[in-house]
Specification:
The complex is a heterodimer of chains A (about 140) and B (about 500). With about 140 residues, chain A is mainly α. Chain A has helices at about 5-30, 35-55, 55-65, 70-90, 115-140, and strands at about 100-105, 105-110. Chain A has one domain. In chain A, about 30% of the residues are buried. Classes of the chains: A mainly alpha (about 140), B mainly alpha (about 500). Chain A: This is Monovalent cation/H+ antiporter subunit B.
Chain lengths: ~140, ~500
């Protein structure tokens, strides 16, 4: 029996972008408000899981051609690299640095290397969650 | 270079992340992991040298001062163990090239081994009790994967048990750390020690000491918490078994050694007495089981448990001889257990049987294998001048010095049973009628033997040059005997 899930698919197309934006917001708010890499990553993978629910694995894999296992590795490299950067300045591992910059649109913004670490966490979480779900979903 | 002591953790971690990119390119994986393990080994040897010159090395991660941030502390004990662990991992990885098989190599085997080494080296180096938990988990997660990788039936069954036991003990670890934190209000190990010394270890802290003994006893397999070990270690292939047998339980033993010398040394009447009794029971039961089985893998597995008992007995004695004996023995045991598992793996590969009664006269076809096995068994039993001798001598002496004649005699007698348990394999399997040996003497074992012989040579040198090694081990013991040295190195005040 072929079901017609037009309503689900149409709603998903809109909702996915809202969820993705919200996850990015949560991710960048992490330093001053509740949020951060972990929950941001989970929300992003939540959006992707909604896509998987509304469409099938093959369609999602075609529209988002990421290798999620490589994403874990890249996330790890981000996190290790942020820590190991300290080695070049002969300060203890994982010592962070920050400064204020005048960015074109945002004005005076503080940029912190902890964000790079958080990007690592974010990528690892998305990669791990999606690997788990796709592996279980794809196995017969 | 102030970050020297973190390099044995970071190099394997970085390697593991890089190896994830080359999942299907086995040749590249092999080269990268060998090179990185050699680099780690060189770095950790350099670290030993630096500690020898300048005393305990500490590193406040993220530049946060000592009790507030995570501090990594590398004293001689942890540097020696890190070096040994890396050496064993190198041996096992080289052995894996020719034995583990493509199926496993394709599924992130080398990356997981690196993660395991991250966990082990981290647990040896950390100076923060919760960070130690995290490194335990890194190590355990990697060991879950190594246990189940390949997906044979026995591996699946045993990994369920293993994961169940370890999840339980990890939960207990968190609860115990929670109790400890609610009483002393800090997680930095030096700071905990200082605060416990201020209140002079009231009853509740002795309760926590026992809880830690249960947690680390489950990880390190002391009586009566070793029930999970024989089955779990039986399941995986030889190089993984060697990694487990050499590294995992020793991390539990190291943690007992660290907490019982750094935290709970005020009221030793109860805790250390209990540890001594449990150690003796561990030794007795391990020895009985080791001579009960005809299965080579089981024999070596129960020898792990005997060794754990011997080491914890040395810790329980809490005198200079006992502690240096324990340190000596733990290093010796890490190397020799890896050797034995690798050799047993080769024998099983040749004969296709785990039962030593099924083959005889192997030495006619494989003399080098036979004599390496012979030397390894002698070293395990502690025949002078091989590596097991000095450690056991010191431990037995410390037992006699504290008046525990029974315990010391049990330790000495256990050597006989250990020797008997594996010499049977040699006498039955290697000697005897050469026509009863394997039907396929054409199995080439040359490359497999290289790492095993290399580690055996290290073990022999460790025994012969024990005078020189003792110089380092006495430094390790000095810190264990005087927690103030550790506290002062971390907190920087007296």
């Amino acid at each position: 029996m072929k079901t017609n899930d037009l309503i689900l698919q149409t709603t998903t197309k809109i909702a996915v972008f809202i969820i993705l934006l919200f996850s990015l917001h949560i991710f960048f708010a992490g330093h001053y408000y509740p949020g951060g890499g972990f929950v941001g990553g989970l929300l992003t993978s939540g959006a992707l899981v909604l896509l998987l629910l509304a469409f099938d694995i093959k369609t999602v894999a075609n529209s988002l051609p990421f290798n999620f296992r490589i994403m874990i590795a890249i996330g790890l490299l981000f996190a290790i690299g942020t820590g190991a950067g300290a080695l070049f300045f002969n300060v203890p591992f994982l010592t962070h640095a920050f400064d204020y910059f005048n960015l074109p649109l945002l004005g005076k913004t503080s940029l912190h290397t902890a964000v790079l670490f958080d990007i690592g966490v974010y990528l690892c979480v998305v990669g791990a969650t999606m690997t788990i779900i796709q592996t279980i979903g794809g196995s017969e | 270079m102030i970050n020297l002591l973190i390099l044995p953790i970071i190099i394997p971690l970085l390697t593991a992340a890089i190896l994830l990119f080359f999942a299907k390119k086995i040749a590249i994986q092999r080269w990268i992991s060998t090179i990185s393990l050699m680099a780690t080994l060189v770095v950790s040897l350099f670290l030993i040298h630096k500690i020898d010159q300048n005393g305990i090395q500490t590193l406040d991660i993220g530049s946060w001062p000592a009790p507030f941030g995570i501090t990594l502390v590398s004293d001689m004990l942890s540097a020696l163990l890190v070096t040994t662990a890396t050496l064993v991992a190198l041996g096992c990885v080289l052995y894996s090239f020719y034995s583990i098989g493509k199926g496993r190599e394709n599924y992130y085997y080398y990356a997981i081994v690196q993660f395991l080494l991250v966990g082990v080296n981290g647990a040896f180096t950390t100076g923060d009790i919760f960070n130690m938990f995290v490194f335990f988990e890194v190590m355990l997660m990697a060991s879950y994967v190594l246990l189940v990788i390949g997906g044979t039936k026995i591996q699946l069954r045993e990994s369920i048990k293993y994961i169940l036991v370890n999840v339980t003990s990890s939960a207990l670890f968190v609860i115990t750390v929670g109790y400890l934190y609610s009483i002393v209000g800090t997680l930095n190990m030096a700071h905990i020690s200082e605060r416990i010394a201020e209140v002079n270890q009231p009853g509740i802290l002795t309760v926590i000491a026992i809880l830690f003994l249960i947690v680390f006893g489950l990880k390190g397999a002391i009586f009566p918490l070793f029930f999970w070990l024989p089955g779990s270690y039986y399941a995986p292939p030889a190089p993984i078994m060697a990694l487990f047998g050499a590294l995992l339980t020793k991390v539990g033993v190291y943690s007992i050694l660290r907490t019982y010398t750094l935290f709970f040394y005020h009221d030793t009447g109860f805790t250390h007495q209990l540890l001594a009794v449990l150690s003796i029971l561990t030794v007795i039961l391990g020895s009985i089981a080791a001579i009960a089985f005809k299965d080579m893998k089981k024999i070596v597995i129960y020898n792990i448990i005997v060794a754990i008992g011997v080491i914890t007995y040395g810790i329980a004695m809490m005198n200079a001889d006992g502690l240096s004996g324990a340190v000596f023995y733990v290093i010796h045991d890490m190397i020799i257990k890896a050797v034995l598992f690798l050799l047993v793996g080769i024998i099983i590969k040749i004969t296709g049987s785990v039962d030593y009664r099924k083959f005889t006269g192997l030495i006619n076809h494989y003399p080098l294998l036979g004599w390496t096995f012979f030397i390894a068994v002698l070293a395990l039993a502690g025949i002078p001048p091989l590596s097991g001798f000095v450690g056991k001598l010191l431990i037995a002496r410390s037992g006699f010095a504290t008046g525990d004649v029974f315990g010391a005699i049990v330790i000495l007698l256990s050597s006989l049973l250990v020797l008997y348990s594996l010499m049977r394999v040699f006498l039955n399997g290697f000697w005897g009628d050469p026509s009863g040996s394997s039907k396929k003497p054409e199995v080439a074992v040359g490359k497999l033997l290289v790492p095993a012989i290399g580690l055996t040579i290290v073990a022999i040198c460790f025994g012969i040059f024990s005078e020189g090694v003792y110089h380092y081990i006495s430094q390790a013991t000095e810190v264990l005997m005087n927690p103030d040295i550790y506290i002062q190195a971390v907190l920087g005040k007296s």
